[in-house]
Amino acid sequence: MLEGWVALGPAALYMISMSITPGPNNVMLTASGANYGYRRTLPHLLGIALGCFVLFTAIALGLGVLFERYPVVQNALRLIGSAYLLYLAWKIATAPPPEFSDAAAAKPLSLWQAAAFQFANPKAWVMGLALMAGFLPEGGPVWLNALLLAGLAEIVAFPCISLWAGFGMAIRHWLTTPQAWRRFNVVMGVLTAACVFFILR
Fold first, then answer.
1. Can you give the pTM of this predicted structure?
2. CA-CA distances (angstroms) from residue 174 to 95, 120, 171, 190?
3. Residue 147 sits in which domain range?
4. Which of 6, 43, 99, 192 would you label with 200, given CA atoms 20 to 30 Å apart?
């Protein structure tokens, strides 16, 4: 059992490299950090961690095999996820500058929305499949090993994705005019929409 957990170090390095690189989550976190700040983006961050934790654990317990046997389920999830991502991209691209937005109407992604999106996020699937295939210890109960490894993965990943929200907050200081805000939001919306290509390819 102990020998299997020697792989925790490499597993942590793998999660750092995958979590800190660009993807749908990090693009949206940058936009959210710029528009809403870190505190209001925190439910989005926690939702990503929760969704990935559940997804990674489910993969280890057989969800990946289920999708291989029934591709129609995976394809349907990809289409739903792509449509939802395009909707989010439109909301980001058309968001007014913070000082002109309705504080009550303008809301960042919620914890449950962010968590549910991970099941349609191709990068999350790649991370989870590789993590569980490469680093899940062989000795001991599979469910316990899966929970511990998925938990470790999200503890490591959380500071990495938080950097993207912080990056958005840093960019905020450069956006001094309504025109600059609108351009930034359009660019973030386009980048978010572009992620659909990686989902549907």
1. 0.84
2. 17, 33, 5, 20
3. 38-200
4. 43
- Which pLDDT tens digit goes with each residue over 61-113? 887 777 777 777 777 777 887 888 888 889 888 888 776 555 545 678 899 99
> Residue 37, by phi and psi: left (phi above 0), alpha (psi -120 to 50) or beta?
left
| Residue 71: Cβ-neighbour burial (10 angstroms; 0-12, 13-18, 19+) | exposed
* Helices and strands, number each (H, E), in the chain: 8, 0
For residue 115 the two structure tokens come to: 């968590």
- Amino acid identity of 63? L
User: What's the rounded Cα separation, in Å, for the pair 129 and 146?
Assistant: 12
* Residue 188, C-beta contacts closer than 8 angstroms, at least 6 positions apart: 27, 28, 30, 31, 34, 92, 93
Give the chain's largest Cα–Cα span: 58
Question: Is 31 inside any structural domain?
Answer: no
Is residue 107 assigned to a domain? yes
